[in-house]
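Format notes (please read before filing issues)

Several people have asked whether sequences and structure tokens are stored in separate files. They are not. Every record keeps both together, in the order shown below: the sequence lines, then the token lines. Line labels are part of the format and must not be stripped during preprocessing.
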Amino acid sequence: MMKTYSTILIEKSALPSIQESLALGKRILEQKLATYQRRLREFEATFKFDTSTFAERFENGELGDDKVWFVWDHARSAVAVLEKKLHDLETVRYEA
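Then the structure lines:
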């Protein structure tokens, strides 16, 4: 599949600030991701099944409506979103 690209134009003098800001944002996303991944491991240890099994059972309505299942599902969704954002940041390329 051919990739398409977007172009952002900034003054060359602003490039270091942009790079630094993106690096900072990446570190923050990595910290958030680690926090949510830790939460997933805690849920898995507590309930003795992995997150993919949880997702299947939750989506099939097998677990009911207890708040804990929605918190687990939120953590699972947050991990997916954060992984996507980090992947997107990894694709940023600079041309001076």
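For reference, the curators noted about this record: Residues 19-90 form one domain. The mean pLDDT is 96.
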